[in-house]
Amino acid sequence: MLAEALDHLVRGIVDSPEDVKVTQKNNRRGDIIEVRVHPEDLGRVIGRQGRTARALRTVVNALADEQVRVDVVDTDRRR
């Protein structure tokens, strides 16, 4: 549910909603929601001084039962 809510919010912010990919992962440190966007939309999702990203993290953590980490990365970055 958290990934879907974050996906909806991010798609409303960006110019290329078809390039938005939200994945939820579990590791030993807890849950991570990873948001991948088009490189041109990265600044729009992060916002000035990180305000938009911080607001998205606040909304997700308000919906979550426990602390969830939200990472925003562009589509050019490979892991």
Automatic annotation (TrEMBL):
Keywords: Cytoplasm, RNA-binding. It holds the Pfam family KH_KhpA-B. It is found in: Cytoplasm. A probable RNA-binding protein. PANTHER family: RNA-BINDING PROTEIN KHPA, UPF0109 PROTEIN SCO5592. Belongs to the KhpA RNA-binding protein family. NCBIfam families: PRK02821.1 (NF002761). This is RNA-binding protein KhpA. The gene is khpA.
